[in-house]
Amino acid sequence: MRIAQVAPLYERVPPARYGATERIVHYLTEALVARGHEVTLFASADSLTAASLVPCCPRPLWHDREVTDTLVHHVAQLERVAARAHEFDVVHFHTEPLHLPLVRHLNVATVTTLHGVIRRRDLGALLDVSRDAPLVSISHAQRGCAPHANWLATIAHGLPLDAFAPGAGHDGYLLWMGRMMPGKGPDTAIDIARRAGKPLKMAAAVHPGERAWFDERMRPLLARHAGCVDYLGEVGGEPRTALLRRAEALLVPIAWDEPFGLVMIEALASGTPVIAYRRGAVPEVIEDGVSGFIVEGVGAAVEAVARLPSLSRARCRAAFEGRFTAARMCEEYLRAYGALLERRASGQEACREVRDEAGHEAGHEAGRAASHEAGHEAGDKPVRTTPAPA
């Protein structure tokens, strides 16, 4: 199958540090290539892939100080995709859904995985006018504000089996990891760790849009609790995997409806249980009492920390292997692509049948019109139906 993967341009594929969507695009792209498919990746020029790479910007937009408007670069990327759409069987978008009103004009099967929160007054308005665009959700919870959209499947994220490895134990610290923003609850994580009497390590990216909030809210907290909170900044590579592997638990005290939460399955793959608030996709990822604890509020989270010895790190890893591998994700996407192509083929066949039927009916109409016109031309004379004598 000839497949185009269209990645966001904010980070390279795979990201050097933070970048959940670009990481998933990488895992899916490499799995498809390994299965023998002909894959083309539209991404930043420094991306690393076994697929054919179409560079759409010199470097990731969030790391290019000369870039002030990321929108125009994604529009230019869309033009590159449109120009080559005829080369593919399926074009798979992971980008901001600017393209949705245009996909019907690409004359190729397309699917869009929505990786973010769907807000009814924002993205919902775009889905209202693009109801025929096939979509994939990353959790059932994500669909809540757009049940009417053209959902093709729900496909949970997956990781390669060897991307993370469980350790023999832990070093007794709690971990908060992700993007430094209010909805992710970094300030709440500090409160939980402090009340539980546990050291906390924090590994987080601070994006320009959250810089003011970080300076106003988080810097004072980090300074006040410097003795028990170790803020490491943005961490990637082996130091990141080691942080996950050696943590006693990952804290996910989210204050928003998380559409998936990739860091949770990264923790499970590392054998590390998760303590998370019951929001968004959390109940679809964490098995309460098996791979972690699902709680509501700081007090319940502190009690969950005390119950961590009752959980098995081996069962956390088993939960990952049973539900969240890249191989499973790849297989489900291939089934979705197949369904798209079947739907497209049957739609084209239906169009041909309509055209054939219309042409057949037009032939009858033309014949009747010709006879009628001949009658008028001949006046009251009978219309000759056999050749005139020579």
Layout of helices and strands, plus pairs?
Blueprint: E1 2-6, H1 20-34, E2 38-43, E3 52-55, H2 70-84, E4 90-93, E5 109-113, H3 123-128, E6 135-137, E7 151-154, E8 174-179, H4 186-196, E9 200-205, H5 211-224, E10 229-231, H6 237-246, E11 249-252, H7 262-269, E12 274-277, H8 282-285, E13 292-295, H9 298-306, H10 313-323, H11 326-378
Parallel strand pairs: 1-2, 1-4, 2-3, 4-5, 5-6, 6-7, 8-9, 8-11, 9-10, 11-12, 12-13
Helix pairs in contact: 1-11, 4-9, 7-10
Question: What is the fold-level CATH name, i.e. the topology of the largest domain?
Answer: Rossmann fold
Indicate the multimeric state. Answer: single chain
Overall form: globular
**How many helix segments?**
11
Broad CATH class of the largest domain: Alpha Beta
Kindly report the average pLDDT value: 89
Instruction: Look at the structure and name the CATH superfamily of the largest domain.
Output: Glycogen Phosphorylase B
- The helix-and-strand class reads alpha/beta
Low-confidence stretches: 350-355, 369-390
What is the domain tally? 2
Radius of gyration from the CA trace?
28 Å
Order of helices and strands: EHEEHEEHEEEHEHEHEHEHEHHH
Helix fraction bin: 40-55%
- For the secondary structure, the number of strands is 13
